[in-house]
Specification:
Elements: H1 2-14, H2 24-29, E1 36-41, E2 46-54, E3 58-63, E4 72-75, E5 79-83, H3 94-112
Amino acid sequence: MKHAVACLLILTLVIPAEARQRTPQEQVTKIPLGSLVLVQMKDGQGVKGRLREATSTQFTLEPTTPQNAPRQTFLFDDVRSIELPKTQRYPSSPLEFLAAIPAMVICGVLRIFKRNACDDL
């Protein structure tokens, strides 16, 4: 019983680590350049593209289909949030991380044997 209570207390310290909402500038620093992102504007509009540049006041997105639109620059003041699409996010909870371990092990073993089965994941 003591061990179960101790585990629950530890989990309460780990789970609310992202309780505070990050500013768009903080969100961009966590995203690698070239990543596909979803941008939610303050006026409710959503924009999808690849993150190409980021400064302290603005960032640049390249559209997902470059032949029909130029790069767009957005001010952080006009943005509500910047996120990776759900399929590209890292595990955000301990349970999601534990569920991802078997896939990581399988991909690692396949890479050892020179199979490219996990390149699309």
